[in-house]
Design a protein that fits this description.
- The complex is a heterodimer of chains A (328) and B (127).
- Chain A has 3 domains: 82 residues, Roll (Ubiquitin-like (UB roll)); 88 residues, Translation factors (Elongation Factor Tu (Ef-tu), domain 3, Beta Barrel), CATH 2.40.30.10; 123 residues, Nucleotide-binding domain of ferredoxin-NADP reductase (FNR) module (Rossmann fold, 3-Layer(aba) Sandwich), CATH 3.40.50.
- Chain A is an alpha/beta fold.
- In chain B, helix 3 packs across helix 6.
- Chain B has one domain: Orthogonal Bundle (Globin-like).
- The longest helix of chain B is centred in the first third of the chain and has 18 residues.
- The chains are: A alpha/beta (328), B mainly alpha (127).
- At the A-B interface, helix 7 of A face helix 2 and helix 3 of B.
């Protein structure tokens, strides 16, 4: 096929034989970010909205990006007509109804929302929750894919946090709330079932990790799965019994709760979750690593995990917005 | 590394893109673990940084590139304000050499790579 058509935001560009998508778009004066033109810098990453892009155009991209049909325009010699996008699509919201609300600890509420339409998400992704007046916040889905219409969230009350305060104080069972399409790249794909997994979360960073762990165990992940959940003190932890029960049930799942500021009771480790994890597992070569929670923890742990041998392709992270400027 | 023949470019002699990928992995770890320079890499996106290092090493290995001194200047101007100087550039050069040695690249090729990398010094340091 000599010519292919590239549709970008209702603008059609013809791509000639032997021409990359980037070359065609630039020739057509389309404003698209790019730099190295050789697949290294990834500035020109775009996403196909219809057909899967050619595999050669996804070289070097993370598996989760490939799965969502992202590709590099500078490497792509299209094999058929494609509809592509540069950024995020307009968000689609479905109606949700609060069906349960309970406290996990003094500062975190477990919210269960029944969605009108089943959502197609991966364990570990987040959605945007929108209040009737338009106030929006992102929250991670804390359950596995088994319940696609019933989503659970861990909502931590932040000092001065408008949305979290409202959820804690005013949102009631039976109230409705808008739920966006699932987003984010920190999620579990059931491939490489024998790969060792390390998951580190602080505070409500446990939410996506719990979803990932349940998903992995339900899918029959056979490699060891290590969870380190940290907080300043024991009050900030939750689901200790649930995670211990899970560790009893599954031989390959290991759980270490950690507290950084106060004295650790029996069965709880003393120190920051990421420090303890890196001491216990000094060699992360070949491991897949998930990091969720306080941005400082996520950044430090990402660097440590990489220096300890994990490949960047295997490190998935989600830094949460926090009101508190201090770590843990 | 592949057998050198007179007709091969420096990039081919080193081993092409596969060599760049192997080198990025070793090089970036060395740089991040070095207390003399790793503060310059705080608050950067690690994936983007690894991609930039790949582009840089491809250039230094004599491979295809769109290198411009102006880009290099702009990219490092923030770091020059933070105190980036010759000693830090020297540290990076040291890791580049160490990386290539680890990959068993012959000395004469390491010298060529080093001289290409060295040619960016004034742009990196904003002089």
């Amino acid at each position: 096929m000599a010519l292919t058509k590239i549709l970008l935001d209702e603008h059609e560009t013809v791509c000639h034989e032997g021409e990359t998508v980037l070359e065609a778009l630039l020739r057509d004066n389309v404003d698209i970010p790019f730099s190295c033109k050789q697949g290294a810098c990834q500035s020109c990453m775009v996403r196909s909205l219809d057909v899967p892009p050619p595999a050669h155009a996804q070289k070097g991209l993370k598996d989760v990006l490939c799965k969502q049909n992202h590709f590099l325009a500078c490497l792509c010699y299209p094999e058929q007509d494609m509809s592509i996008t540069l950024g995020h699509q307009p968000e689609y919201f479905t109606e949700g109804t609060v069906i349960a609300k309970e406290l996990l600890n003094p500062e975190t509420v477990l919210l269960t929302i029944q969605c009108k339409d089943a959502l197609d998400y991966y364990a570990g992704q987040f959605v945007n929750l929108k209040r009737a007046d338009g106030l929006i916040r992102s929250y991670s889905i804390s359950n596995s894919r088994r319940h696609a219409e019933k989503l659970t969230f861990h909502i931590r009350r932040l000092a001065g946090g408008k949305f979290s305060e409202w959820v804690h104080q005013e949102l009631n069972i039976g109230d409705t709330i808008a739920v966006s399409d699932p987003q984010g790249l920190c999620y579990y794909l059931p491939d490489k079932m024998e790969q060792s997994l390390l998951l580190i979360g602080t505070g409500s960073g446990l939410a996506p990790l719990a979803g990932i762990i349940h998903e992995a165990l339900e899918e029959g992940h056979s490699g060891p799965i290590h969870l380190y959940h940290g907080s300043r003190d024991v009050d900030g932890l939750y689901w200790i019994d649930e995670m211990r029960e899970l560790a009893d049930k599954y031989e390959n799942f290991h759980y270490t709760p950690c507290v950084s500021r106060s004295d650790a009771p029996e069965g709880v480790a003393q120190g920051r979750a990421n420090d303890i994890a890196m001491v216990n597992i000094p060699d992360l070569k070949g491991w897949r690593v998930y990091l969720c929670g306080h941005p400082d923890m996520v950044n430090q742990a990402k660097r440590m995990a990489y220096l300890n041998g994990a490949s960047l392709q295997d490190i998935y992270s989600d830094a949460f917005h926090v009101a508190s400027p201090t770590l843990d | 590394m592949s057998e050198a023949t007179p007709n091969q470019s420096l990039f081919e002699q080193i081993g092409g893109e596969a060599a760049v990928n192997a080198a990025v992995d070793i090089f970036y770890r060395k740089v991040l673990a070095d207390h003399r320079i790793n503060r310059f890499f705080d608050n950067v996106d690690m994936e983007q940084q690894a991609a930039k290092q790949k582009a840089f090493l491809t250039m230094a290995f004599g491979g295809p590139n769109n290198y411009t001194g102006a880009d290099m200047r702009n990219a490092h101007s923030r770091l020059v304000k933070m105190g980036l100087d010759d000693s830090h550039f020297d540290a990076v050069m040291e890791h580049l050499g160490g990386t290539l040695k680890e990959l068993n690249v012959p000395d004469n090729l390491i010298t060529q790579v080093a001289s290409i990398a060295e040619s960016t010094r004034n742009d990196v340091l904003g002089r």
